[in-house]
Amino acid sequence: MATKTESVIESSSQHSREEHVVIFRLAEEFYALDIQTVQEIVRMQTITSIPGSDFWVEGITNLRGRVVPVIDLRKRCGVNAGDHSPETRIVVVSSATGMVGFIVDAVSEVMRIPGEQVEPPSAIVSVPENTYLRGIAKLDDRLVSLMDLEGVLPRAAGAAEEFEFAAAAAA
Amino acid sequence: MATTRGQHLQFDLDDDDVKLFCEEADEQIELLDTYLVQLEGEPEADLVQQIFRAAHTLKGSSATIGHKKMASLTHAMETVLDAVRQGRRTPTSEVVDALLAGLDALRILANEVITRIDSGVETSGLEADLHAVLEADGPEASSGPTVAGGTTYQLSETSVSAALAGIGQGSSCYLVEVQIDPNSQLPSIRGFQVLQEIDALGIALQTWPDRDLIEAGAAELSITAAILSKESDEQLQAAVRVVSDVSSVSVQVIAVEQLDHPIAASVTSAAKAGFDSGRPQLALVGSPAVVNDTARAPKKAATQSVRIDVERLDGLMNLVGELVIDRTRLQQIREQLSAVLKKANLTELEENFEETTAHLARVTDELQEQIMRSRMLPVKSVLTRLPRLVRDVATKCGKRVELLTAGEETELDRSVIEEISDPLVHILRNAVDHGIETPEERRAAGKPETGTVTVTAWNQETFIYLSVKDDGKGIDTRTLRTKVVEKGIMSREAAESATEEQVVQWIFMAGLSTAKTLSDVSGRGVGMDIVRTNIERLNGQVKVRSTPGKGSEVIIQLPLTLATTKALMVMANSTVYAIPLVSVTEALADHEADIHSVNGVKTLRLRSRLLPMIDLANALGDSRPRSIEAGRFVVAARHGERQVAFTVDRLLGEQDVVVKSIGDLVGNRKGLTGATILGDGTLGLIVDTASLVTDQAILASA
């Protein structure tokens, strides 16, 4: 009896597990982030670049008094990064290491995707260094890549290169 | 007994209580730290009382939460202090040593309440030591009547008249002293029960601590009551003993003669006179009266102040930082808007708007100032640690040193206080270890055998200064000159031609130590170098002055707060950078500058110095194409002895900048300390001159 109830709950939860996501476009591809992590979506604004930072780091921006790092998600995901358009947006998310902005070509919609429409990424693509895809949602008209937020972020500092200088010439 | 290190501990308190307990324990431990070192010799009675009270409070609170080890150790310390208080034991250096050792263990034990992990500190040895110093002084003083602990209790006038009236009606007046086992789980309840038993048998005229306190659940382990009762002393004894955890009860009859005092009766004391002369070996600046005042100060202050979580203050500071930026933006918008409004003939609206924005600006400035002030702490919180340190170091080096402090009330930002403590300790250690001579050397030089180190703090404009001055032998410049040549840091000519004033600053160079022998106190000459680095990271400066044979003085200059920094704003390759003003020595247009090419390196001749010229954007790793106007201005910046000249595109003027963290996600942040929000809402980058100057100067000389 007990085992039966359990299995019923399990299977029903699997079926009803929905992905509540924000879908956005990078070049011609569609990606999605869990809506829980998204703080806000703002228009493109002035971004101050940090000299010598990784190429996908666009810089930092002032979000109502907060200094927020901005990552060009197109460069991070290896899609063709064209010019910014009036549709370009910064998706501000809250990650374990703090607030981060992602530059995307357009935000298309907020959506609930039923669990059974999601496939593990290995079934469709297999990129060795892929740390950020956790699933592919098959919608009627297109495919949407579900992103893992922590996987998409560069590992926090510490990995920063340490330059070693020769001791003083006189030594 | 098997070791319990690492074991999980259980205490009788929830998270809020932990915070309360720690705050109180920290306060009392700090107090002990400050005053214990002054105990040696013939201390003031008030000082002893203060120390005793601190130990007593610690004992009470640790017993309340069921920290048995801590309660039992404080009990042992309290017993020794009690003996000192009553004059039964002279506080010799052995006594103070034992107490200080106990204090060190207490610190660790108090921390267990947070970690909940057994630190493995063994207290039995310390308790034995404390017991031993108590015994060492021979038998307890036998003169005069002694009651239990031998403490003096003052009966109020009302109590005395009530007692006399009661005795007239056939009752007896008793002094009942009850000790509660420090291991009791519920000392506050036990105290209350004792009071109930007493109430059942008679009238409690007066209790120590106050009845209100006991009823409110104060965890006192010793309760004394003057009571009026028709019962015999044995019956009283027996009645109180019924209460659990009562370890001892003493009942003494108070005779009519003892009560018959015109103003107030003083009941029994074994305390000897004789504390009231002499001066402690180590003293804080000012008369003993000052010490007493500060000792009482926390009580008075408690009624006027509120404890605020530091995070909340930091949050406020950030919010005000945003407000300040909006204020600047608002003023820019007003300027644009006023032209439009005037054109549209809306002068009244324009004036109103101008008035309001001006008012808003004033209030914002005031608010920022007030919040900055509320984050300030008196520098005293750092200085209280120093007497103990000086005593330890002096003992280790076989020197006699008196520490004087002044300006303890000087306030500075909490963030600065946290950062300044270590450098200060280091400088002080150096002063005692290297500066002050041994008593023999001092006698030979015709100086008093006891050296003096003075730590002074003061405010001047937007800076705070800290000075550590000793009357020792001064800095040996001859040895320094030889050393820099030996170590290959400088050529013989350069070393010989430097002025005395320049040479003394070399103590801040890496790898130099002039002490003839290495000691475990000041280490291997890495110290002062790190001191300077740390202070410069705080946008401060450190300098030293020295007179041979007379002593030396290290002066630290610090900004009042770390939240804002004065900076020179520059533009380099379309990015705005803020260069902290403390490191900027000069800024000039390149056509005014005396620029030469030496070995293919562009070099700026500034006065007598040659500075390598470095493109700021390049040095920071900016690889974007350069703008046309590149490198039209030169900013000379220094870090310690090193100087470089940065070329930038434009100078934008001075500005107060609010330092914001860039965060960890950006990757390479080499050469940058943070970002700041500019007047137009965009961000500028704050240059870490210390790292940049050091790296670039080394690269250029390589």
What does this structure look like?
The complex is a heterodimer of chains A (171) and B (702). Chain A has 171 residues and is mainly beta. Chain A has helices at residues 2-16, 73-76, 149-152, and strands spanning 18-26, 29-34, 38-43, 57-63, 66-72, 89-95, 98-104, 106-114, 118-119, 133-138, 143-147. In chain A, β6 (89-95) and β7 form a beta hairpin. The longest helix of chain A has 15 residues, at 2-16. Chain A is globular, with a radius of gyration of 20 Å. The N and C termini of chain A lie far apart (81 Å). By secondary structure, chain B is an alpha+beta fold. In chain B, 44% of the residues lie in helices and 22% in strands. In chain B, strands 16-20-21-19-18-17 form a 6-stranded mixed sheet. In chain B, strands 8-10-11-13-12 form a 5-stranded mixed sheet, with helices on one face. The longest helix of chain B has 34 residues, at 310-343. Chain B is globular, with a radius of gyration of 33 Å. Mean pLDDT of chain B is 77; it is low at 138-149, 261-303 and 514-526. The A-B interface holds A 46, 48-54, 57, 60-62, 64-69, 71, 95, 97-98, 100, 153-154, 156-161, 163, 165-166, 168-171 and B 318-319, 321-322, 325, 488-490, 575-576, 617, 620-624, 660-670, 672, 674-675, 677, 681-685, 695, 698-699, 701-702.
